[in-house]
Amino acid sequence: MTGGFAQRHIGTDAAAQGIMLHALGFDSVEALVQAAVPASIRSRPRATTDIPPAATEAEALAELRALASQNRTARPMIGLGYYDTLTPSVIARNIFENPSWYTAYTPYQPEISQGRLEALINFQTMVTDLTGLATANASMLDESTAVVEGMLVARRASKSTSNVFAVDADALPQTRALLAHRAAAVGIELLELDLAHGATVPESVFGAFVQYPGASGNVWDPSGVIDAVHVAGGLVVVAADLLGLTLLRSPGSLGADVAVGTTQRFGVPLGFGGPHAGYMAVRQGLERQLPGRLVGVSQDAAGHPAYRLALQTREQHIRREKATSNICTSQVLLAVMASMYAVYHGPEGLQAIATEVAQKAEALAARLRSYGLSLTSDSFFDTVRVTTPGPSGRVIERARSLGYQLLWVDDATVGVSVDETTTDADLAAVAWAFGLPEDEFAGAGEQGERTVPFADAAPLAAVPPVLRRRDEFLTHPVFNTHRSETAMMRYLKQLADRDYALDRGMIPLGSCTMKLNAATEMAAVSWPEFSRVHPFAPEADVHGYLALIEQLEVWLAEVTGYDAVSLQPNAGSQGELAGLMAIRGYHRANGDLDRTVCLIPSSAHGTNAASAVLAGMRVVVVACDEAGNVDLGDLRAKISAHASELAALMITYPSTHGVYEHDVLEITQAVHDAGGQVYIDGANLNALLGYARFGDLGGDVSHLNLHKTFAIPHGGGGPGVGPVAAKAHLAAFLPSHPFSQRKDHAGGVFDGGPISAAPHGSASILPISWAYVRMMGADGLRDATAAAVLSANYIAARLREHFPVLYTGEGGLVAHECILDLRPLREATGVSVDDVAKRLIDYGFHAPTMSFPVAGTLMVEPTESEDLGEIERFIEAMIAIKAEAQAVAAGEWPAADNPLVNAPHTAEAVVAGEWTHPYSRETAVYPVHSLVRTKYWPPVRRIDQAYGDRNLVCACPPIEAFA
User: Given this model, what pLDDT does residue 312 score?
Assistant: First the structure.
């Protein structure tokens, strides 16, 4: 094992690995991995590598500081959905920089996720209150992708048979570009209309999209347009600024069916484009059409209120190619921050911020009018478009000379957006850029000695009274209670204490790779040179970001065997979609318009099929054999049946079943021989890095999960980054963007259309993966893979006599995860996989992945970061639970009253009232002695999921519910 950072990242040292190897019968870690990884796929040693030697933590931070210094810390006033904001320090310290929040996983085990589920209920309530609609989900990936999802909701729910969707000409340009790219793939025709200036909506539309306020800043009344679309049988999607909605009428009150947008300006740093939490809310009757995650209120076994994910959560695994969305995650960490911004400020505070923003815009407009300049609209909230007497570029450059970034609209128009950080001195500097006489500004090119006072300006001066907000919002006590920092700090601590994250113990979730998110990797995310940068900033101001991005692209291409990498996709599902869209673009460029069939193994992750459908492909399922491998015979038959229309094969390697398939080269060759392309899902890359490369296996394109293999934390269910990597012939079809600072990348010129709202997706968390690769080096990455494979095989070997290991490769070995079959346990004892998962909570563990990819199983992935002590603790817990199940089968405890079916046990459950169970209190909560000092206490008992779906509540319950 290498020294330095890698030695601290990898949990098992040489002594521990020796113990594990002895149990497995191998002399070295290398010998184990060589036995597990088929010789046919192993990478040949290369004379050179693009991965630099491992840096120390201090060296990596110094290099990041040097890159950060190349970013010009200008004041961004570009707008277009992105604003500078002030993150309250209590939120920055206690959420953004707190591993209790950022190392948690998606709340599939709701009993140990009550803190972040409450925070997400707050988020949903905030969104529904401000948008005036009935139900909101737990966040979207960004505003533009939320608009696309809104369009798809309208298409599904509309009574119209039309295939036409009307789009506001004053929509954000990045949203229009994304709509065009996505609509083309699914056969939707877009019709762009100047809705604000009277364009008539035709009767033949299934829906329409309105930006409110418009990208130009214009505030207008869209209710007439909404009524016209409804008459046509269509649905209306409105993208609304949440801060503006504290002063403006809500989309729901105007008749909108769906509201979407971003919550970025609610205390979430710009971060060169992300990660930020988008939002979506729908009117009553559309709840079951919502994509993504929805948090609901149910009750636990004691009848107490409890939160959990509701309805169609992870519908991709259930409906697969019939899924209506491929989004299986959300931006939880950022949604939590935005919700707490609302909790911190309350309705009065948010309205005061919005009022001041509107006053700043009015004051700037008044000053510019005094110079004889005209605005494109006099009705606005925070953005003005100014007609310049000369070339607009001169105004842009004058502003840049003072450190301000304005929006170039065209040769005669400049846009300016103000926000909560804008000062009266900033307004004066911008006014000077438009032509304030030099003698009225102290020292040409110097800032700050003159101001444009805004306190007396009338907010929304020209906005029609009918568009002023009159109804209340955020009336729930949670938004009106935590006013002091002491109260806020304690509230956030209480929520964190209800959750289980990596800072408490191992989260052995198969397919999810919950590895260490080291503090040094995380450090740069908070630096202002990375966090306060607008995604559309000019190239000259972001050299540091662009250099970091190019380096990471090159490194990822090297370790995967591809030629080009785009970092734009901001989730694994979006990386899947980008890869398939690249394949679609490649076939269409070659004139192969009929190549639309996508072959997908039956074991594949559910998002694969959903992504294929959204890329305009038709899914054909390929069978798997008893060992969990792709059935070669069935694959060849499907290829033969669809040879002329074969677009792609999607496979996961190692397989979703956690084994290295020996026939992968034969599989990829068969697809290529038929003219198809091979997409390899990168979810399990942590089992390959340093030993094999997707590109060498015959892969043409893959997505990678930086939130898995490359150490970006999962954040309670987001953020994520899902870069797409491809061979040279697909590079031209990788994601582009209308505001990209550069079209040329290390692997070529990308021109495939956008996949996310920002040119580089969730750019502010890329320094995490950059630091991981930089500090691990090529040898460290290889050692991490070996350690992960060793730990998985050790768990499989130790537990095999208690729980059958469902799938193995040659020699009985697995890859980086193993599937424990609990179906025989249920048949013998009546104890279910749910009972085992909930009982693990009593032992102080987050359960492994339940019933995926096979119902009634647990998929265990320890990763390389866990030490032998924690691994042994998990093994001990699983063996003890098996013994408890056997005690139930032997009649020592009744089938309806035992520690397993009653798990998890809360403190209240064991101390309140008379204890009537046939097992002791100690057995309930201290099943092993080590828990006496380290006990994690779940805040609720087992949650009734069915009750929650029958009684759907997706907003903050009243305080009386907890009495």
Answer: 55
CB-based contacts of 914, cutoff 8 Å, min separation 6: none
Residues 877, 832 within the same domain: yes
136 strand-pairing partners: 281
Handedness of CA 633, 635, 639, 641 (dihedral sign): positive
Instruction: Please compute, for residue 815, the number of CA atoms within 13 A of its CA located in the half-sphere on the CB side.
Output: 28
Asked if the structure places residue 74 within a domain, the reply is no
Q: Check residue 313 and give its pLDDT.
A: 55
Mean pLDDT to the nearest integer, 643-662: 94
Measured CA to CA, the distance from residue 963 to residue 102 in angstroms comes to 31
- Which residue type sits at 516? L
Q: Which residue, chain included where needed, has tokens 């690249």?
A: 582
The SS3 assignment for 286 reads coil
- What tokens does 203 get? 């009767």
In a domain, 117, yes or no: yes
Residue 312 burial (CB count, 10 A): 22
Angle at 150 between CA 101 and CA 406, to 5 degrees: 75
Q: What is the CA radius of gyration of the chain?
A: 28
φ, ψ for residue 734, nearest 5 deg:
-75, 165
244 and 369 housed in the same domain: no
Mean pLDDT of 822-850: 97
Residues 792 and 742 in one domain: no
Dist CA 639 CA 318 (whole Å): 25
pLDDT digits (tens, 9 = 90+) for 746-786: 899 999 999 999 999 999 999 999 999 999 999 999 999 99
SS3 447: coil
CA-nearest of 598, 853, 571, 587 to 724 is 571
181-240: per-residue pLDDT in tens? Answer: 999 999 999 999 999 999 999 999 999 999 999 999 999 999 999 999 999 999 999 999
Residue 560, domain member (yes or no)? yes
What is the CATH classification number for the domain harbouring 455?
3.90.1150.10
How many separate helices (H) and strands (E) can be counted in the chain? 32, 27
Question: For the chain, what is the domain count?
Answer: 4
- Together in a domain, 400 and 452: yes
Question: Final residue of a domain: which of 342, 368, 385?
Answer: 342
Instruction: For the chain, give the percent of residues with pLDDT over 70.
Output: 97
Name the residue range of residue 629's domain: 526-776
In sequence order, what are the beta bridge partners of 296? 308
The verdict on 550 and 695 lying in the same domain is yes
- The model's confidence at residue 946, banded by pLDDT at 50, 70 and 90, is confident
Residue of 29, 15, 247, 183 lying closest to 792 (CA atoms): 29
| Per-residue model confidence as pLDDT tens digits over 277-288 | 999 999 999 998
Average pLDDT, the chain: 94
Concatenated DSSP letters of 191-232: EEE-GGGTPPPPSS-SEEEEEES-TT-B----HHHHHHHHHT
718 in the same domain as 655: yes
Backbone phi, then psi, for 859, in 5-degree steps?
Answer: -100, 120
Q: Which residues of 694-716 are buried (b: 16+ CB within 10 A; e: fewer)?
A: bbebbbbbbbbbbbbbbbbbbbb
Out of 342, 358, 385, pick the residue that ends a domain: 342
852 and 742 share a domain? no
Angle at 290 between CA 311 and CA 939, to 5 degrees: 45
Whether 587 and 714 map to the same domain: the answer is yes
For residue 470, count other CB atoms closer than 10 A to its CB. 7
CATH number at residue 694: 3.40.640.10
Q: What percent of the chain has pLDDT over 90?
A: 89
pLDDT at 449: 47
Do the domain assignments include residue 678?
A: yes
Cis geometry, peptide bond prior to residue 275 (ω within 30 degrees of 0)? yes
User: What is the C-alpha separation between 431 and 425, in angstroms, rounded?
Assistant: 10
**Residue 136 near residue 150 (C-beta atoms within 8 A):** no
* pLDDT at 311 (0 to 100): 75
922 pLDDT tier (thresholds 50, 70, 90): very high
Q: Which residues contact 887 (CB under 8 A, 6 or more apart)?
A: 893, 898
